[in-house]
Known about the structure:
By secondary structure, this protein is mainly beta. The chain has one domain (8-229). Helices cover 9% and strands 31% of the residues. The protein contains 3 helices and 10 strands. The chain has helices spanning 175-183, 207-211, 222-229, and strands at residues 17-22, 26-42, 53-57, 77-86, 90-95, 119-120, 135-137, 144-149, 159-171, 192-195. It has a 6-stranded mixed β-sheet, with no helix packed on it. The chain has a 4-stranded antiparallel β-sheet with strand order 3-8-5-6, with no helix packed on it. Strand 1 and strand 2 form a beta hairpin. It is elongated and about 60 Å long. The N and C termini lie far apart (47 Å). The mean pLDDT is 94.
Amino acid sequence: MVDFSKIEPYFLKENYLIALLFPGRGVVAFRVLEADWADYIYEELGSFGVDEWKEPARLNISAEDIKNVLEIDFSDRLYQVFYGISPATLRSYMGYPVETLIRNLEMQRIPYRAKFGYIDGFKSPFSAPAPRTETFIPENVNVGFAWWNYGAEGIDESLISLVINRYRITPIRNVPLLTNILNRQGEGRRCRIVTLGGIETSIDYNFRKTWDIDPIPLTANTSVINAAVRRTK
């Protein structure tokens, strides 16, 4: 049984506001229309030898031809994911997108078998996923993981406990509300702004095709916001 107590305060509810910050581009803000959830145990990682490293990859299920358990195919959907790891000595390194490992330090990007930037089962236990694993995934973003068994023994079975909150969302086009979100005023103060991935993340995203909207820089004025939310179709 999964203990939700540490992560439940972060769950979104109907009518909540959430702004996704695409690094280097700006934010797209949404209102949550509907919410549900699922927990899922991913069992496809297999075994690990001592000190074995596995390169970044999606969470696929080859037997069912599922390329990515965390993939979304609808523009009005959003995943909020938390995860726990078993055994505790297995370290995960997130790729967001899958080719770009995040949680770097300025002194060094995450290398092979890095001693930083990881989540393991001590930080996020299998039965009680930690808040620091929170990840938001919109349509057309593929998230993956690299793995390292840094323990002194091999691993016969490795598991990931996924808690996936699934939301139906709609883009916010109300200019005064968007202004308040950027300025942290009025109703905008209750909107969370979350960075997708990390500072190094670069997502080649077609915002207009997906939501018919442009990302809004955090320092945008009213005219920039108006242009960003103007419909083209």
